[in-house]
Design a protein that fits this description.
Pfam families: Peptidase_M23. This protein is an alpha+beta fold and 275 residues long. It is built from eight helices and 13 strands. Strands 1, 4, 6, 7, 8, 10, 12 and 13 form an eight-stranded antiparallel beta sheet that branches. The protein has a three-stranded antiparallel beta sheet with strand order 5-11-9, covered by helices on one side. The chain has a two-stranded antiparallel ribbon with strand order 2-3. Strand 7 and strand 8 form a beta hairpin.
Length: 275
């Protein structure tokens, strides 16, 4: 799905913030506080710059103990850190959104978070199933499953056939469902460590391997762009990455070509595809 008025990056980051909140059993009010904060600090973009050494969705600072640069630029990590600090604030649930946000952020402009409360509530409501609109028609509703550097591509590798596209990313980076479908496998798998397989209309199956943790179960109906797992380094893997595989009527196909044929922006630059 995509959120009305927001692009794919902002939608993906908002979905990650809400998904982490759900995983940590944070009430919806806390998710609203988190989204309002990210709207104020970064407009839901994972910024690599900011005031002094501020970074990421929440403009957290390595020098203030929020984590390393790499950690803060991982939306799952930064969201977890925000919620951890929010839950430690006594009585945050009864505070105004702007006060709860400022208790975590300690901003020079504490009232600014309240300006985004209405938008944050709309986003959280949408991500909980209301007022969503489908993924854009361009690309046939297919979305890129994670953000990262494409490394080993589809084709022969070390005398064997590599059946998918590897996308390197930090552990715990969100993995999204590439298209609407039904989960047919979710759990341990030989070689893949931990995988998810989703069946889509038209005889297409997508595979997501080496996951750190899965967020879906067999039988779940998922939407394009929904967080289904996190990048990991399980199984036969030499570094944190997503192994993304597409089977069309039982036959593996090149994911990069598959997306290109559907008019979707490529999964990676051709120069990096077989790195």
């Amino acid at each position: 799905m995509t959120l009305v008025g927001y692009g794919p990056e902002e939608t993906r980051n908002a979905a990650t913030i809400v998904a982490v909140g759900k995983q940590l059993h944070v009430p919806e009010q806390g998710q609203v506080v988190a989204i309002a904060t990210a709207l104020r600090e970064s407009w839901l973009r994972n910024l690599t710059w900011g005031d002094r050494d501020s970074l990421g969705l929440f403009q957290q600072r390595p020098s203030m103990g929020w984590g390393t640069r790499e950690e803060i630029l991982n939306p799952v990590y930064s969201s977890t850190q925000f919620y951890t600090h929010l839950l430690a604030v006594p009585g945050w649930e009864k505070m105004r959104v702007t006060d709860a946000a400022d208790a975590v952020q300690k901003s020079a402009f504490p009232e600014s978070y309240g300006e985004h409360e209405a938008a944050a509530r709309a986003i959280v409501a949408a991500l909980h199933g209301a007022h969503c609109q489908p993924a854009p028609a361009s690309g046939g509703g297919w979305v890129v499953p994670t953000t990262g550097t494409c490394t080993s591509g589809y084709g022969p590798r070390n005398g064997e056939m590599h059946r998918g596209q590897d996308i390197a990313a930090p552990i715990r980076t969100p993995i999204l469902a590439a298209h609407t479908g039904t989960v047919i496998d979710s759990g341990p798998a030989s070689g893949y460590g931990l995988w998810v397989r989703i069946e889509h209309p038209g005889g297409v199956i997508t595979v997501y391997g080496h996951n750190n943790v899965n967020h879906v179960r067999v039988g779940d109906r998922v939407q394009a762009g929904q967080v289904i797992a996190e990048v990991g380094n399980r199984g036969e893997s030499t570094g944190a990455h997503l192994h993304f595989q597409i089977e069309n009527n039982g036959q593996p196909v090149d994911p990069v070509a598959f997306y290109r044929d559907r008019g979707h922006p490529s999964l990676c630059d051709e120069a990096e595809k077989r790195g």
